[in-house]
Amino acid sequence: MPELDSSVKNVVNETLAPMGRSQIREFAEKFAKIPGLIKLTLGEPNFNVPEHVKEAAIESIKENESHYSDQKGFLSLREAVSGYLKKQFDLQYDPEAEIIITIGATEAIFDSLAAIINPGDKVIIPTPTFALYIPIVKVLGGIPVQVDTTPDGFRMTGKHLEEVIQQEGPDKVKAMMLNFPGNPTGFVYSKDELQEIVDVVKDKNMFVISDEIYAELTYGHKHLSLAKLMPGKTVLINGLSKSHAMTGYRIGYIAGPKDFVEQANKMHAFAVTAPSNPAQFAAQEALTNGIDDPIEMRKLYQERRDYLVDQLNDMGYKTALPEGAFYTFSEIPAKYGLSSVEFANKLAEEGLVGVTPGVAFGKGGEGHFRISYAASMEDIQEAMKRLRKFTESL
Question: Cβ(101)–Cβ(81) under 8 Å?
Answer without folding.
Answer: yes
